[in-house]
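Input:
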Amino acid sequence: MSNGTEAEYEVTHGRPQAFYENFDRKGELQHQTHYCPGCGHGIVHKMLAQAIDELGIQNRTILVSPVGCSVFAYYYFDVGNVQGAHGRAPAVATAVKRSHPQSIVVSYQGDGDLSAIGSAEILHAANRGENITVIFVNNAIYSMTGGQAAPTTLLGQVSTTTPAGRNAANEGYPLHVSELLATLEAPVYIERVGLGDNRQVAQAQRAVRRAVENQVRGLGFSLVEVLSPCPTIWKMSPVDAQHWVRDVMEKTFPLAVLRDRTKDVQPKAAPATGPALEEIPRILGVTDEGEAEPSDAQAKGGVDLQVRVAGFGGQGVLLLGEVLAEAGLHAGLEVSWLPSYGPEMRSGTSNCHVRLAREPIDSPLVAHPDVLVAMNEPSLHKFCASVRPGGWIFYNGETVPEECERKDVHILARPFMHVADELGDGRAGNMVILGALLEATATLPQASVDAALGQLVKSPRWLTLDERALARGRELLRESLQEVCHEG
Amino acid sequence: MTSAGKQDRGRLRVDQDECKGCALCIEACPPHVIQMTERLNHYGYRTAMYAGAGCTGCGICFMVCPEPGAITVLRLASHVAASAEGVKPCAGN
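Output:
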């Protein structure tokens, strides 16, 4: 009755070797990508990884990842990796390929990256016939940033920036990048494929492999455009999104081989390699002497408060920092507020860097804060060691874990969210912390804080609650001062 | 198991922790032998699972799956398949 033993079967389709065993971007879920369920990127990643495996080129492949949801491709592909500025991947790929002619260089880009901000780079890389492979994942929208219209957005398609649907009179027509590039002389292979059903997926897999193989054979510029589903931003189930690719998207972007000169062109010899890195100073006549001493501008006097706020999305991390920076601005200080959060549409970490200073601010990055606000334990773990001696840590928790204890900083650990709960809403916990922070640092007048809060919090109910939360935070700090100073 | 009582040509493994429950494999499977679990996995997703019989080992579920290793497809080793057919294993296979 049985289907035989497992031993009688052999694996024919399994995790490609070109992927890392573990993706160490996050502390947990290291076997999973960060992509949403049903995302086309995962499928295209797998096709590319399989092509790398089949062609045996893992050791000489260099992947250029873009800006967009696929920015983290370098966490997944166990190959050489470079991450380019927005839209610049083909320019970076050109440099990589020319300086390492034996490498196999793949520029992996989305439609926001390639067809909008990067339209010049792709056009010229294609026109020069660079011997690179471009994988162009087109989902007709900006996904990572929440669904704005892209040049590729379909006519009538609703996005946050085309709420009534894309209108040609106002936003122009969907840009057919592959057709445009196919008017150029140099490209050898351009094909548009889709992920709309099994047949399309099988064709897409062949096309991706061909585009990489062309480069291995030295034939020239190859590009595969993949029409790819984005269930999250399209607000569809993964299966419906897949069907939408086939039934709707394909009407605007017909699947076709738009250019195939692979049989006509002769493989190009790899260009001679450039001089070795250590040769370059001699060629340029540059000596090692005369390097400027690093200056320590921060050692100068005056206010320079550096704050790092860290937590999960939804904990009010960004608003806390914004109120602080806005209050600094009102008080006549130089300020910077730099939010930083992951590309996940769900449950990501959220951080911000705030600086308040008398002198102009050189960098908005805060690597060594005077004050750390940690909204949860992972954030405390991550940043507790970075706080400057004599600084403050505000931790949203009952007790500080042993490994995070420090004698040289002041630590206030309280369940601030619960404190805010007692005031009426736990979500005001961020303001309780801000109150304590303001009391501890005494850098800003209350009037500036009030003005900032009034400007940023529009709802009268929340404004009242936040004001009470701030006052409670100040009170909390005064009550705990003795304890904190003992610890400090 | 196929109707003739022969061994299935394929088998399927789903990593319950890696699967995000998008159901693309269920849609794609030609013999319809993948289904959804009732229970949620550790991370709160309902996931795909092999119904237990009927897999042909075609591998299309693997290709439509967005996760690198959530699905593994196995195929009956050629010598086993060959002997089941009453044919001697051939080196060329």
